[in-house]
Design a protein that fits this description.
about 525 residues; alpha+beta; GMP Synthetase, Chain A, domain 3; Non-ribosomal Peptide Synthetase Peptidyl Carrier Protein, Chain A; four-stranded mixed sheet; three-stranded mixed sheet; 18 helices
Length: about 525
């Protein structure tokens, strides 16, 4: 006896009541579709489509019909385009169609997933469910295909560390499937955990990272361009003296904020700057001047603050050489805790420890291999024009504008269905749309786009104050004969390959490509 679904065509999928006949009717409305049948097996939906005589329909076309009209949980896991077998009564033989599911050699392993087995696999499955909001995780489930990204990956590192496992982002990219990651964690645990090395106490300076050196060079070229600022609305009974002490505690806690940059090789720790720190005072008219004023990175901390009495606001400005956007929330939380006299645990490692360890453990062979990957990616890119070649810039042209666009809920839902169906992240969808825009606007099929990436690739770095943002150049090509599905899948594959080498310093890539003064890219996507 074989169960072919509930009477009336109703099934439960991810807790939702789904009418299979409703999905079939949607498919039957497709152009050149002669008939459609939808079956459920093991909590998965499978669609069978019979094309009109002499017409060839692709699986991608059928999925596009589904994405335009069905919600996420109603999208079939697999589509079969076939001539329907008939039973003795001349009706569609659903038992014969059901056997196609069992014998589908091309069926994705995720669609017929193997249940989790080991304790580590179950632990990973539980963490992924909570982190990604998915209802089921199989051995073959891929973290990045079911909703994972760099931001959620950083959270995963913290979750696993709290459970006694050390994991780096590079290893997550290398072992993205649940069973692969479980095997790696089991092996890493048995062979000992990785650890950073503390900067020796007798040393008052530490080596700068490649990113810090880049920030220092850019600051010299365009002073004030890498200031980051945020505004805090204060309580009416705020005590400025107590707030000043709290900021001093933050500076003392994170030495990277009190580093003097005398040259491009090392930074000197200036603990004396902590005691001399004072909140500046000003009015609303001085805000712009205060936020845009260049830092003297040799003679002052990388953080300053302005109190505007008329608004009862605190303007905090930090330089990108010491922090990235990830740090802002951390700084605000610590400032609040120190002001409230809440005890904060001392961090195990500071940025100078990371920089010291990075230089000490730098593997030149690995670096050369990573650089060679990017050289291969950009082979022939010297012939690809950058966007600034199309418009001659004035020597001091500068204009900043923020344009916001709110997408309607219906479009967002359709995009969600599309990315879920193709198992690509929303980032890939938006990146591909930006690629199409640039290609059409500048009539270029080959474009290079800069993408900022986070190098917080291990649990100890997730809450560390410091600059951990590198920029990679993605070379993307657009073929006029290429469908949107192929474009998204191709870009997804290229991104997953490239991100494994995301820690390669941009300067080394540019140097290896011998571009001279020509930029590798002139547009960023974040």
């Amino acid at each position: 006896m074989e169960f072919l679904g509930r009477k009336g065509g109703y099934v439960k999928i991810r807790g939702y009541r789904v009418e299979l006949e409703e999905i079939a009717k949607v498919l039957q409305k497709g152009e050149h579709v002669n008939n459609a049948v939808v079956l459920e097996k093991n909590q998965n939906i499978y669609a069978f489509v019979e094309p009109e005589n002499g017409v060839s329909l692709t699986e991608e076309y059928i999925f596009s019909i589904c994405a335009a009209s069905l919600t996420d949980y109603m999208i079939p896991k697999r589509v079969f385009v076939t001539v329907f077998p008939l039973n003795n009564n001349g009706k569609v033989d659903k038992r014969a169609l059901s056997k196609l599911i069992e014998g589908a050699s091309g069926c994705d392993t995720l669609e017929r997933g193997t249940p989790l087995a080991t304790d580590t696999e179950h632990l990973i499955g539980d963490v992924w469910k909570n982190l990604l909001g998915v209802s089921v995780v199989y051995k073959e489930s891929d973290f990045f295909d079911i909703g994972g990204n760099s931001f959620k990956g950083a959270k995963l590192l913290v979750e696993l560390r709290q459970r006694g496992y050390e994991l780096s982002f590079s290893m997550l990219w290398k072992y993205p499937k649940a069973f692969e990651l479980a095997g790696y964690l089991d092996q890493a645990t048995s062979s000992g955990k990785m650890s950073l090395t503390k900067l020796p106490l007798e040393r008052s300076s530490y080596p700068l990272t490649e990113i810090q050196r880049r920030m220092l060079l850019l600051e010299q070229q365009v002073p004030g361009s890498y200031n980051m600022s945020f505004k805090l609305v204060l309580a009416t009974n705020i005590c400025l003296e107590k707030l000043n002490i709290a900021i001093r505690q933050v500076l003392e806690r994170h030495s990277v904020l009190c580093t003097s940059y005398l040259g491009f090789n090392s930074g000197t720790l200036r603990k004396d700057w902590v005691d001399n720190f004072t909140i500046e005072r000003g009015d609303a008219e001085s805000e712009n001047w205060f936020t845009e004023r260049p830092f003297d990175l040799e003679n002052e901390p990388s953080l300053r603050a302005l109190y505007v009495a008329t608004k009862n606001e605190l303007i905090v400005v930090v330089h990108h050489i010491a922090v990235d956007g990830w740090c802002v929330v951390k700084l605000v939380n610590e400032l609040d805790k120190f002001y409230s006299s809440t005890q904060e645990n001392e961090p195990s490692f500071l940025f100078q420890d990371y920089a010291f360890s990075r230089e000490k453990d730098m593997d030149q062979t690995t670096t050369d291999e990573h650089v060679q990957f990017w050289v291969n990616q950009f082979d022939g890119s010297q012939d690809v024009p950058t966007l600034d070649m199309f418009h001659k810039r004035a020597a001091c042209e500068s204009r900043v504008e923020v344009v916001s666009l709110e997408l309607d809920s219906e479009l967002v839902e359709k995009m969600h269905v599309l990315t879920t169906t193709l198992q690509v992240s929303p980032f890939i969808l938006y990146l591909s749309a930006y690629q199409i825009l640039l290609s059409r606007y500048f009539s270029q099929s080959d474009v290079v786009i800069g993408i900022p990436v986070s190098l917080r690739d291990r649990a100890e770095l997730v809450d560390m104050i410091g600059m951990f943002v590198n920029t990679v150049g993605m070379r993307l090509t657009l073929d006029e004969d290429m469908g949107v599905f192929d474009l998204l899948r191709g870009n997804n594959g290229r991104w997953k390959d490239s991100i494994k080498y995301q820690d390669t310093p941009l300067e080394k890539v540019v140097e290896a490509l011998q571009l001279g003064k020509r930029p590798l890219f002139s547009t960023l996507f974040n």
